[in-house]
## 1
Amino acid sequence: MLAGLMQQVPLTLNLVRERVADLYPNKTVMTRYCDRIHVISYAELLGRAGQLANFLAEIGVERGMRVATLAWNSHRHLELYFAVPCMGAVLHTINARLHALDIARLLAHAEDRVLFVDRSIWRTVGTEIELPSSVHHVVIMEDESDDALDPSTPAGRSATCYEDAIARHGRAFAWPALDENEACGLCYTSGTTGDPKGVLYSHRSATLHTMACLFADGIAMRERDVCLPAVPMFHANAWGFPYAALLAGASLALPCRQTDAASLVELIEAAQVTMATAVPTVWIGLLDHLSKNPSATARIASLKRLPVGGAAIGQSFIDDFARLGIDVMHCWGMTEISPLGLTNIARSDLDADETRSTRTAQGLPIPGCRLRTVDADGERCAQDGKRSGELQISSPWAAAAYFAGSTGQATAADSFVIDEGRAWLKTGDIATIDPHGYVRIVDRAKDLIKSGGEWISSQALELQIMNHPDVREAAAIGRPDPKWQERPLICVVLQSDSAERRARFAREYRDYLAAFFPKWQIPDDVIFSTDLPKGKTGKIDKIALRKAMAGS
Amino acid sequence: MLAGLMQQVPLTLNLVRERVADLYPNKTVMTRYCDRIHVISYAELLGRAGQLANFLAEIGVERGMRVATLAWNSHRHLELYFAVPCMGAVLHTINARLHALDIARLLAHAEDRVLFVDRSIWRTVGTEIELPSSVHHVVIMEDESDDALDPSTPAGRSATCYEDAIARHGRAFAWPALDENEACGLCYTSGTTGDPKGVLYSHRSATLHTMACLFADGIAMRERDVCLPAVPMFHANAWGFPYAALLAGASLALPCRQTDAASLVELIEAAQVTMATAVPTVWIGLLDHLSKNPSATARIASLKRLPVGGAAIGQSFIDDFARLGIDVMHCWGMTEISPLGLTNIARSDLDADETRSTRTAQGLPIPGCRLRTVDADGERCAQDGKRSGELQISSPWAAAAYFAGSTGQATAADSFVIDEGRAWLKTGDIATIDPHGYVRIVDRAKDLIKSGGEWISSQALELQIMNHPDVREAAAIGRPDPKWQERPLICVVLQSDSAERRARFAREYRDYLAAFFPKWQIPDDVIFSTDLPKGKTGKIDKIALRKAMAGS
């Protein structure tokens, strides 16, 4: 092989860190804590990341070790985004909305060495987490001013508060030279579907994904942007927006956990946000707020762009924001692809009707992503906008396997296939691709319910309900919901059906499930039946069930 | 090392080729040949690239072999841009403006296996090229309709015409899986400064550079663009614009060699060009044309963006185009960095005065490029916009060494330095960096003259003039020129100075130099002197000389 003679500069997040230090030291990140607004320059942020790295080195964090976070969107979480990967460790961002049992399971599976946790989370769900033995150290982050919380809470563990931990250390850290294929981040797709499935990002995948967020046809992050990622930083790195903002030199506004409309309006106004991102539920809440508080519209005048993902959106959603002068761009992705794969850009070669009708498609592949749909036999489907098949992705920022963790076994190998001389990730979504390349997700192969941007496993719900002594058969499905996009609904066939037993079950099932699931995952309603529709193989036919329940 | 578990998708130009096939088969490339306009779809172009790859495989072109081109900007040249690298061979684009002696030297140094040459070039300078033995095959490309030229011209070589060569082959080609570090292209910085210095691009460097051309803060290539690279495709891949256009899905308009204003106006109108790029000389010609032909202004109304590089520009240049609704963006680069390193983006944190005054700076580093200036001791200079030092670059698309070629020896190793834990390319330019990161080139360390975007070696001129029996001392410098930016001027001290000898030398030097240099490199004027200014080490002080000659 004749090798090119170009510099071997590894694609690592150090490129982002160094660029910010060189060019954007005075740009800022503003965090809206529940009781105050906090502003810090990027120079200060990186200095504190250096202090943090020194602290982590001191307590024994080495290359490749996992460092967990249970935190909302804040400047401290952002400091972890740089300190942990740039020192060669792996940032494991855990979904703070999970049940304590699931959080403990993830900590154990990932063998996290340290847990960084927001004080507000530690005070609530935190008290119920049984920390696995791998966790040597807990660091409590001061997201609320109440410092009554004793940092020595976890029995037998070293514990400290974040500000105390870093205060003793200098800002200079000897950032090591990293290999671009080293792991930099870990994110689990769902803690509720049996085995947790961890996606282990590499510096290379994260850096390329970050670069892709700067493409003019796409997210188009620019220096003059002020970016508000309202999607949690535990969801695939807040869709990559924080890293993209820093690479582009944009300022950041972080909402902590306050993504209610009033708080967002306040933050948008305070930071003069130009671009924000979250699941549709959040923005539906904002529209609702504006309709009740028309004067708030002027306060968000700086907001121009809204890349939206996590659930499908309709034309009226797009139109409502267009009337406010805000351009909605439909995006699509998943944790396994870092997560962005599609952005909805209007092609110049569409006519007016096509332009309008494609606005609600999930979008076109981002340069660097190659997509295809395949039928049940694994053959490519025609890209005619009609034939649907499983969507599969080849990209340097798509997963090739799940993280085996402490079990030592890679899981869900059937999510990956080698074909046409390359690896493909099987997304589990059913889609069409039209002749212009626009992808539409038409059904979900995976049996999941998506509520407010969070996944709920119907399988996990069904298993627990089936364990109830009164239940013979059960199915959980998503029911369309104007606010949450979907809410779970359970359909139950009782062992000995009677009006009395139905009434009792309807009264009791919430308490029964609360031992296993966080509150927001518990179905709002139960529908009783004497039979559930079945497919040829005897499995419950969820599509038929969803149709039958459409009016419930 | 804990490796991430992401797909290992190699960064190769196949990503561009495949994306175009998937998404943009119906976008087009329009070529303005001297006597006709030719349009072809990208699907057709890639099909022909497949035919071309089959032909090249048939005549023995293997992985890593060099394939030379001597060609202007045309669809056939673009077919070579894909066929050659994507089959694993190396595209060596030779500057068609060089002297036949230099072209022969480059062909020999690169050990090119095949030479693709435009018929118009083959008919002129081509007849004077002594082909080295490495060149087994010559393919003549039909850039003019005159087919009187006998393709068997080169004695003892297999020769054919392009259309005949590919016609016999199918469009399907088994594109191999490539390593991203394989060489894909070769470009020499100058054939006139002693040893040729070849930059051997890798697929990785070319692909990352192509991605960088899509960044919103920068070239910002978009699908809705129609891009006219008027910079020749033999200059660092036309600054990377053709690959960027195809990755973004933009259409292309290629001017062949017709970059005179009238031809450009015609092409801009015909293709509805939105963005064009070339050295300032070309655009100064366009402004001049428009001032004489005001009606032509309406014909270029589609043109909105003008990324300009290759020479410094002034505020009046920017203002003149702004009045036409065209946004000029200063860019800077060099063959060694693929070539883009800086783009002039207005930062949002500048005040109005700063915004205006920075417009003429060379720009800000593109994400992925890290720049520094160092003083004579190799110490970093302060980024205060005042202290100047040599500009050095670290980037995955910057060269780490020059191609040794058939000589087996890497040349000019003093262009590269390892420091701060990474490789730096020493650009040879003297620059300042201001606190916002804007780079200004303030002087040229390398002693080169730049005329109409092409380099002229003052050293090579001086050596030949010094060989003239009447000359005692000589220096060649660039004199500012309204059209060509710089034109060479020679300052001569004669052996026995007299009015008669001066007159004779002034009459004869052009013919004398014509044996060694192409016409455009020959100095327009000679200035006689009895002495030349010298520095402390006895070397001619070019800076003092340029000042003294400023009015000549």
## 2
Amino acid sequence: MEQLIYLLPIAGVVALAYSFVTTGWIGKQDAGNSVMKTIADQISKGAMAFLSAEYKVLAGFVVVVAGLLVVMNTQVEGGSPLIGLAFVTGAAASAFAGYLGMKVATQANVRTAAAARKGLPPALTVAFRGGAVMGMSVVGLALLGLGLLFILFAGQLEVFNDAGGLNDQVGLVKTVNLLAGFSMGASSIALFARVGGGIYTKAADVGADLVGKVEAGIPEDHPLNPATIADNVGDNVGDVAGMGADLFESYVASIVGAMILGAVASNGSLEMVMLPVTIAAIGVIVSVVFTYFVRVKEGGNPQIALDGGSFGAAGIMLALSWFIIDYFVGAAAESGGLTLAGKTLETVDLFVPMAGGLAAGVAIGVVTGYYCSKNKPPVNSIVDQSMTGPATNIIAGISVGFRSTAIPVLIIAAAIFGANHFAGVYGVALAALGMLSTTGIQLAVDAYGPISDNAGGIAEMSGLPPEVRERTDNLDAVGNTTAAIGKGFAIGSAALASLSLFAAYKTMTRANMELTDPEVLIGLLLGAMLPFLFSAMAMQAVGDAAMDMITEVRRQFREIPSLRPALAKVKAAEDEDRALSDEEQAEIMEAAKDTQVERCVAISTQASIKRMVAPGLLALVAPVLIGFWSTAALGGLLAGTLVAGVMLAIFMSNAGGAWDNAKKQVEDQKRDYDASVNTGKGSDRHKASVIGDTVGDPFKDTAGPALNILIKVMTIVAVVIAPFLV
Amino acid sequence: MEQLIYLLPIAGVVALAYSFVTTGWIGKQDAGNSVMKTIADQISKGAMAFLSAEYKVLAGFVVVVAGLLVVMNTQVEGGSPLIGLAFVTGAAASAFAGYLGMKVATQANVRTAAAARKGLPPALTVAFRGGAVMGMSVVGLALLGLGLLFILFAGQLEVFNDAGGLNDQVGLVKTVNLLAGFSMGASSIALFARVGGGIYTKAADVGADLVGKVEAGIPEDHPLNPATIADNVGDNVGDVAGMGADLFESYVASIVGAMILGAVASNGSLEMVMLPVTIAAIGVIVSVVFTYFVRVKEGGNPQIALDGGSFGAAGIMLALSWFIIDYFVGAAAESGGLTLAGKTLETVDLFVPMAGGLAAGVAIGVVTGYYCSKNKPPVNSIVDQSMTGPATNIIAGISVGFRSTAIPVLIIAAAIFGANHFAGVYGVALAALGMLSTTGIQLAVDAYGPISDNAGGIAEMSGLPPEVRERTDNLDAVGNTTAAIGKGFAIGSAALASLSLFAAYKTMTRANMELTDPEVLIGLLLGAMLPFLFSAMAMQAVGDAAMDMITEVRRQFREIPSLRPALAKVKAAEDEDRALSDEEQAEIMEAAKDTQVERCVAISTQASIKRMVAPGLLALVAPVLIGFWSTAALGGLLAGTLVAGVMLAIFMSNAGGAWDNAKKQVEDQKRDYDASVNTGKGSDRHKASVIGDTVGDPFKDTAGPALNILIKVMTIVAVVIAPFLV
């Protein structure tokens, strides 16, 4: 049984090997003409500049927190300073995964654009493989890091004369608790990366649009707009690096949550700890294998290829899970069986929660899809209400978002009920793991979206023919099903993983958390407030950072002499709805060279890094402050943040998604309702729907996704500080 | 001690006598010219038509629920069918208070307009006395109903051979538990009244504005707009009747909560039950006395008069509370003292929670004022962000609303902590009562706002000179401090009163509500979701009902022949920014007679009544369904709704208030930022701020205030059904 510990680093190495090979393949693809290369180079440099600035700030933070962990753990009986090492490793692995993913994404975007000149299938392949590198780097580093630490800590047990090693309950609990440090490191970095990246991407986006499209009247992604590169950098740091760190964190939290709960909720059964580890390792192998199934022939349907890859992997993994569980239950039977809460568990008791978790994730994804898709009643209602202006558009979008919380919450409740019925809180942990066992390939599909999006931007900026942009837009549209389901997994697994960590906190502190205890109630109230305050800070940060960007772009338009005539020319052509001549186009590209792109990039970078600190620290400090006052209040705090955070996250993501597609739906239809009125692009209704979409941007891309991390980071902090609270 | 029971009906009769006399006085005031009388008559008839339609629907609901309560209580041991009587009485008293308040408000509005022709002070007096009738009707009926039931139930105890009567613990608990029925009746009516009235007022407002101001280009409140009367009716049914039912409910819930908790949390101490009763009774007398202090001389500052009245009453009441508490503590000392959780309470232990509650209410009000007031940083930020359009205005408003939850929640947490420290959950109940002991005069100040607002509408519609409108606008602006503090009390008392009822639920069911119990967590999740779903339903209802109204107004503009030329004339005058000649004005008033005002009123009435049912039933049915599944889950449900509901209520009220004042602030300033750009009325920034204000309307006037009731109605339902769950 102990030997299974080596599965983790092995699976991690397999995934990383895949990443390495695929990165090489992508590097060999055609990177397009010199304009494309220049643009891609600017984006790549901007993205790396952001990462390095961000990591510098975070490095200081990591050192301080690691120091505190070491000092505190040498003070408390049974504590081990090794948790500091785990924390640093988790943070470093998360950061490195973000770095690898973004590195390849900024290579893949321009190569996708280049491939799109030839057709859809080659472009899909490049974009998907770019995403796959991201996915496999994330799961590979997670398993490698976790595996090496696990082996190290297990080895230490014998050194420290913990004779029983992993087969001894005390030793096992001690070992897996140290791994919480790894998870905390990953979560902290993810929180800052999500918030910082989210601020960057939306500040650049809003800033570029408001000055470029609205004030100067030039098209989106236009080379004359100095904020365009920053906007594209933003897509990478927000959507690629941010999402990577996010999923790294989710993945680690669900594995570590299941391990800790396996150890503390049982009589220290090694089987219960090794089961989630094994499932994660096998899931990675399955993911890698299935990336090779994502192929499409000329004229084939790429949607089927992508969905086939990710659903196929999930299906196979579910089937394999039965046998894995059966093996562990069988092995455990020899030593008296897996007992939890007085009941001897059978294979079905562990399989159902996992399958239920997977089903719940898919169901939430389907519901998410329903609320956010074009031509479904919720989006239709927003489109209808846009007829009477932006105010009714906004009210309708908020209504849809609020309402969309209901069914996902019922699904989560059902998953908790079922999982708990079969295997107690350990079942809840397995349900979270069930959703995330094939994260590798899911993330590949998720990450290829922003790569395609970026490819489109590069095509636009480098003046490629419109059919290239059309192809990249098509790529972006494909795989939306998987992306929606990815969202469902993100929300569902956040709720379930933090619930299982919450149960671990309870077991570790033995806090009496009766709901009517005033301390618990105070914690609940404060906890429910935090997601609101956190979201407000994140949105405010976007607004402030966008203002910085707007001021800079306005300055350049005003002060750079060559820009004014070029801008006037583009605007005139836009107003007259005519294409520019080649000569004019060349003049404009010449003027575009004078834009001070790097200043916009620098402003976005500084603004977002400065403003990510406060909301990030809020999440990390709040549980510590409350915890040292009262363990019961900290329990309340976690529960309050969990429930309010889940609601706000669903609300903000879905309202944002629905507004986005309502705008697209308005753009799709040239005329309706009344044949004499144009209700499509350019109409008042379209303007109203654009406003809704803009409001939705920081909802769905900054605050919403960060809330999923907020929930978990607070719980993992509570677990890590638990030994000092009792 | 038992004799103090008679204080309640006596105080109730005093308040009602005040109402009766003042109503007579108002009736004798000048009701203006014939046009004004006609308009006032239309508003009054429309408002009464709504009430009677609403009460018809609610009567059916009340009969069904009362029947169920009677049947269920005859099935369970120790249950008494008298709870059905209590429920009906509570519902009837609430409905009657709404009726009385609205009757006098629709008389006072036109008389305020008439008085405003003479000057500000007489107008203030009429408007304030109108509000005072509302306030005293609410507290008078509450105490009379509660008092008579209490006497009746206490008398029944001896009939049923409960020999000890109120001095016996079992008898006391049984008696006060029956009073929960009264509170549930009041809460149910309040919920429907708030939701129905809130839908009505905003649907009419939005409908009238969109077709009148936006489409036809005629001013607000114009007589040619057939929806204008409905809009004014809406102010009465939403702001007056809705607010009255709301405060009736809050007031009753806090008194009954303290009584129940006094009985169940102690060893059945009669002193603890009679204390809140006595405080409420004395508070009413103090309120009545202080209404006579609200006087202003010509040239005096009405703000000082109003604030003096309500703060004076609160201050005196606080001082009196010390002596009242001291009396009860002294009386209890003879029979061994008031013991709670093993500690013998002294005067200070009960006084501090009450004073703390009052202080917390004021503090929340001050914070509310800060977030919603012109020229303070939050509203300034919205004004600034309006420069870049509606999208940034909306994002800024939502940020402000989210952020504004933080300090009030900290204050509520501090109040809970302090109250609990001194006197356990009974202290929490007293804290809620502390905020509401002078509800009578507070409501007087609150209710005079909509009366002044309506007076302004009547002045506009009946073509009175502009200075009359200015005076009524000034009236509306005065007393904002008190109104903000009223909001603070509403939110604070809702949280504290439902917490104390929650504690009563726990004691009654003896449910084990450990926070990590999956059933509790499922309850928490579902409970946190309900306020979101409820708000979505309420906002959606406003949108749908507004659409009905828009369709009808468009039809009238299209089909009534005389309206088209008149509308064209008004629009032309507006566009040219010139006043109409007397002749034109007369023509237009003639055409206005052809508008089918009553059809718009009927449409608003039907639409709002139809759409109030679903959200209302959601609140009432959810705790029953969950409760019969699991008492622990119901506990979680209540806690989840409480915390998420408090956040959403604060968010929606404050965002709405901040948007409203951001718009006003933009209108105040003709030019700023850049001398060459008009940034005031009519500018793009103004348009953006109007959109924010419109989004805020259903936030602050429909969903926000209803959430406060939602929280309490669910808790009181849980308390009432508690005996069947164990």
## 3
Amino acid sequence: MAMKLAATSAIRSFASSSGISGSSAFARCLHASAGSKKIVGVFYKANEYAAKNPNFLGCAEGALGIREWLESQGHQYIVTDDKEGPNCELEKHIPDLHVLISTPFHPAYVTEERIKRAKNLQLLLTAGVGSDHIDLKAAAAAGLTVAEVTGSNVVSVAEDELMRILILVRNFLPGYHQVITGEWNVAGIAYRAYDLEGKTVGTVGAGRIGRLLLQRLKPFNCNLLYHDRLKMDPELENQTGAKFEEDLDAMLPKCDIVVINTPLTEQTRGLFNKDKIAKMKKGVLIVNNARGAIMDTQAVVDACSSGQIGGYSGDVWYPQPAPKDHPWRYMPNQAMTPHISGTTIDAQLRYAAGVKDMLDRYFKGEEFPLQNYIVKEGKIASQYL
Amino acid sequence: MAMKLAATSAIRSFASSSGISGSSAFARCLHASAGSKKIVGVFYKANEYAAKNPNFLGCAEGALGIREWLESQGHQYIVTDDKEGPNCELEKHIPDLHVLISTPFHPAYVTEERIKRAKNLQLLLTAGVGSDHIDLKAAAAAGLTVAEVTGSNVVSVAEDELMRILILVRNFLPGYHQVITGEWNVAGIAYRAYDLEGKTVGTVGAGRIGRLLLQRLKPFNCNLLYHDRLKMDPELENQTGAKFEEDLDAMLPKCDIVVINTPLTEQTRGLFNKDKIAKMKKGVLIVNNARGAIMDTQAVVDACSSGQIGGYSGDVWYPQPAPKDHPWRYMPNQAMTPHISGTTIDAQLRYAAGVKDMLDRYFKGEEFPLQNYIVKEGKIASQYL
């Protein structure tokens, strides 16, 4: 698909819900001394795919399209995909980097230990949305600033979730397998293919992505439910027709389809364990583009095998990249992909523009868009608490 | 997914667009003499899948759930999946059947020759929507009535089309292949994965299914175009924001995604040949759940191979079942399935109820719902002309 893409309309403006109030006192990073900075970016390598699309900015080769701009200002810009183990390329730069740019798609895990050794580190930027690969408490304690390109790929992820809902409800993959294996057996697909219309879809979390999903689900005439800490404003609730469920355990048994749209926090890590999955309808379909670690890996495998889960689709795993023997690769009724939903070409253009904007502000000592802050002046944004 | 399904709300009411005006003069079939009728149903066989779902009515074993009802009234009901060749089961019953029930999913091709030999035939019912497997001219000339369960699966098909659009735009299948083959290469997917937002989607045909698709596309913030013989009523045009394109050749070059939503007629057979496909954008994505014969089979293969078509998805083929060596099974960037979109469990419940309703009216000498008629009193419905 050769499309005209406009990076200019990229960064969407959303009402801030970061929970960080405005402040004119800048953190250490924004008082950074002028002069050359060492910036390290960790992105997935594209190899032969790098040259196939001029807008492919999110890979190591594309390097967000900011190399020339950075270097022309005298900054040093190291980009690598090599992020694991004591001898990796990233490790070499930990002691003297000022800024680390990472992504959720190929996460550079920023541990407390790495933060301690990064004496010059001031700023951690996530190219995309989702900074749980960073030890936020340790970052806050060290006075670092952590920021994302909030909103840069929420549409991308919400669209992808709706695709996965349909793939599971319609039982797409067994049909595709028949095609490529020379078979034709309509019954083998149809006996468990349904319309989405009339089904009950519940989202666990109704932040930016959850709300966009609900808006896109609206014309499908489903029963829409959402669980969150807070009720949506009445206008949006009215617009989507979604019903608030204060108690997650009360919502789960009602849902034909459950979509996970909550950040990974200490509260949500392993939330969907054997007990939680047992509360759901037999044959429930689950879509999870949030984070793999929100699920108990083995509980998902067991429930897919027993039929308690009728289908599981998502693009998030723990760890990432998923090892060759990750059991979700081989469980029945899965429709998984690598971590991809937030890194469409359109999303890359937006988060590349957002990172460049924040770097520019950082060099100039200016504040970031408020909703981008994840850690600021020792405080962690409320959605990560 | 274990769901409560209500057949009662099944048959949707749509404004009639069949183009056949009401008439109190009944055709031969509706003057049929009272007494026992021989009814033959041709459905796909489900074998081991038949018992897996009590609502699986659309298979030969399920037989639309009307056997007991028919036999209790003294009618004979033969059901088979064996529909091809001179010695097939269907052929045995051609000389003396009164009613033939067939489906688009496993089409019993009703040729002029078969109609000539079917001396007792009065009524041809399509369980579903799409009666192009019947020679409608020959049926009209013979004074037969042909009727579908109009509207019974239009939601099912429209949902499936949106799924296929997303599967192609998001480049889903290469990611899934990586998962099951133990790989992880985000770049190999991302270099041609896009958001649907902002893209131009054109539907060729904006009848019932096309309109439902446009309604479901509305929240995705695309540029929506439609080509049809007639402009939609302004309210619906306004509601979907879709723009009318009178000239198909003028619409095609604007579209990132083209969806085929036109019946198969003499005008549309082979419509998308090499020349037509060449008018589209390089890398266009095509979704076709209408009929396989609307495409020139080899032109699609060639364009997928050259990259002129960036992705092709649909569930319709010519002929059906698609032979093992059908080239669409093996062309690049396809996301095909067997003919499945209109035979979800929900759709089966609706079209089974609709067929039962029409048989009941036939036995009682009552008129069918007007929009269901495809051939009546020698006239063919306008959408098939």
